[in-house]
Structure formats: C-alpha cells, structure tokens
Design a protein that fits this description.
Elements (H helix, E strand, L loop, with lengths): L1 H18 L10 E4 L2 E4 L4 E5 L2 E4 L16 E4 L5 E5 L2 E4 L3 E9 L2 E9 L6 E12 L12 E4 L8 E3 L18 E8 L3 E6 L6 E5 L5 E3 L4
Parallel strand pairs: 10-16
Antiparallel strand pairs: 1-4, 2-3, 3-7, 5-8, 6-7, 8-9, 9-10, 10-13, 11-12, 11-14, 14-15
Length: 216
C-alpha cells in the first residue's frame, strides 16, 4: 500500500507540472497586399488593395483593405495616371504597369489603354502550334497567328519567335510556342496559317493549342 501511495504522489506531481507547460503561441500569417480592378467609366479604372495573409490567419487589427493608405504608381504616365488612391485615368494608348505598395509588401499588374477605353487589366494569351503531319506533338515553328476581333484585332505573332512582352518581363523563344501579352480579358478569334498547311480559325479565352494538317 505504501508503494501505491508513493506512486500516486509522483503521478500527481507530474500532472501538476504538465499543467504549467506553456502552450504554443498563436501563429499569424504575413500580410500581403493585392489588386482588384474593374472599369469605372469611359476613362477610369477603379481598383482596391485588399490584404490577405499567407498560411495562417492575419493578426488581430490587420486591415482588410488599404486602398486609401497604400502608395499607388503607374510606370508610364503617358498611358495612365493616378487621379486618387485606386482611381486610374486613361491618358494615351499603350501598355504599362500599375503598382501598389503598403508597408513592406507590394504588388503590380500589367494594364493597357486601347482606343476609346479606360485602363484595363491585361493578361497573356498563349499556346502551342503542332505539326499534324509529323510525329505526335511535334512543335511547329514559323506559323503566323493573327487576332481577328476584339480590342487587340490586327495583332499577330509567329510561333517559335521571341514574343512581345509587358514591360520588365523576360520572354523566351520556344519551338512552336506563341504568346500575346497585354490582352484584355475576353474571347478572341485567331487565325493560324503556314505555307504547306491548312489554315485554321479558333476561339480562345486564354490558352489554345492548334495542330495544323499538311496540305494534301
């Protein structure tokens, strides 16, 4: 009985010590600023700068939006300029970058002004051209890819060539690959042609691969 009593005392002491063990502190994510932009009028684009946190929840008191507190900048003021925090005005046709910074975090996005439009967020439309007369999935360079409609109508590029890019990007030429940078969101009709192959027309919203068949 004495042994059992001693064991109870020891276990009680251990449990009491465990209850005093400090718990892990709450973990908080690192705040990151973002950009959300929509057309506001014939010449204005309206943007917000929301805050999100990576991996873990934001710490208490972290703002959900810093549109008014953030620093805003347009790289090329001959294309667009800031009228107020989050308010971007069209100045001239062209492509540039919109930047937002809050404390130690920043974010940027390509924007463009087209004929008669407000500044618009832009994206990359890309794909691969393949040779339907060669081994499966053989890239085909030298094909002409044309945009037939929309705000970017008339632009063209060549598969396998060095693509145009938004300011500051480092594009790479890849066999069979084509890319259009600075494209506003939407559906576009493309014409793909190359001597010795049948011409194709397709519709795409962002990325499209095309296989051209040799002329019989």
């Amino acid at each position: 009985m004495r042994f059992i009593s001693c064991l109870v005392v020891v276990l009680t002491g251990i449990c009491a010590a465990c209850s005093d063990t400090p718990t892990m502190p709450d973990r908080h994510g690192i705040p990151q600023v973002g950009l959300v932009c929509v057309p506001g009028s014939a010449s204005l684009m309206l943007c917000r700068a929301p805050i999100s946190c990576s991996l873990y929840p934001c710490a208490a008191g972290t703002p959900a939006d810093v549109t008014q507190e953030a620093e805003w900048r347009v790289d090329d003021t001959s294309v667009a300029k800031m009228d107020a925090p989050g308010v971007v005005r069209a100045v001239g046709i062209g492509h540039t970058l919109l930047r937002v910074k809050w404390t130690s975090t920043d974010f940027w996005t390509p924007i463009a002004v087209f004929n008669g439009t407000a500044p618009l967020p832009t994206y990359e439309y890309e794909g691969m051209i393949y040779d339907g007369g060669a081994a499966p999935r053989t890239p085909l360079s030298g094909a002409r890819v044309e945009i037939l409609d929309g705000l970017a109508a008339g632009r063209s590029t060549t598969s396998g060539a060095m693509p145009d890019s938004y300011p500051g990007a480092l594009p790479i030429a890849t066999p069979g690959h084509y890319a259009f940078f600075g494209m506003p969101s939407g559906t576009y009709r493309l014409r793909v042609s190359r001597a010795g192959y049948q011409t194709q027309e397709i519709e795409t919203r962002q990325m499209a691969d095309v296989t051209l068949s040799p002329v019989q």
